Amino acid sequence: MRELGLGSDSTVVDLGAGTGKLTRALVPLVGRVVAVEPLAEMRRELEATVAGVEVVEGTANEIPLGDGSVDAVFVAEAFHWFATPEAVAEIARVVRPGGGIVLMWNRHEFPAEQWVTEMGELIAARRAPGIKPENRYGSGLWREAFADSPFEPLSHAEVRHEQPTDIDGLVAHISTWSFVAALPDEERAALMEDVAASVRRGLEDADRVAIRYRTQVYWARRR
């Protein structure tokens, strides 16, 4: 936040807000949060669970806000899906000069253990078609959208953290991964049942597990 000079008088956008995981973290840090989300189901859940936020329908190519009306646009776990020069131009349109953009991705740090290997093999064999590696953060192709953009070069930082949970929580988390969530309901349920059984075999009697992350954060100011 301090890198972009954001504080209690700032207005920020959570673009592609989903159900509001990042949104609820932003609310106590700034003066006004506008959550932009295209899916009605996601907007309803966000409105029901996150107080103190404006929720509006919109996309990266059509943000329903005025020119230079916000201090920053945040995008968590989503930018690679709409990484085009057009989307970057639209984001720049709503950000005031000197404001900024913040992109965030969580990268998992699973231990090098047999149960992790088996879990990965199960998911790889039955993942949803059409979710290709080039769509993902790790390809780096999303950076091309910033060529000749109104933003300064991106800065980068990495933060390690972990989320304590149990095996059911881990399985529920895995079910939200895009290439799992995109499966038909019956296929996804069957896969999650097999994943849960595999994890339980690997962890035996363990009742708690930590989901470890390396959060990749990129930010840039608008010229």
Task: Fill in the keyword field for this structure.
Rossmann fold, 7-stranded mixed sheet, 223 residues, 26% strand, 7 helices, alpha/beta
Layout of SSEs?
Elements lengths: L10 E5 L5 H6 L5 E5 L3 H10 L4 E3 L13 E7 L8 H10 E14 L5 H13 L28 E11 L1 H8 L3 H4 L3 H19 L5 E13 L2
Parallel strand pairs: 1-2, 1-4, 2-3, 4-5
Antiparallel strand pairs: 5-7, 6-7
Q: Percent helix among the residues?
A: 25-40%
Q: What is the spatial order of strands in the main beta sheet?
A: 3-2-1-4-5-7-6
Strand content: 25-35%
Number of helices: 7
Number of domains: 1
Q: Rough shape? A: elongated
**Mean pLDDT metric:** 91
- The level 1 CATH classification is Alpha Beta
Identify the CATH homologous superfamily.
Answer: Vaccinia Virus protein VP39
- CATH topology value: Rossmann fold
Taking the alpha carbons of the first and last residues, their distance comes to: 18 Å
Low-confidence stretches: none
Radius of gyration (CA) equals 19 Å
Q: List the helices and strands in order.
A: EHEHEEHEHEHHHE
Look at the helices and sheets and give the structural class.
alpha/beta
DSSP strand tally: 7
Biggest sheet overview: 7 strands, mixed
CATH architecture: 3-Layer(aba) Sandwich
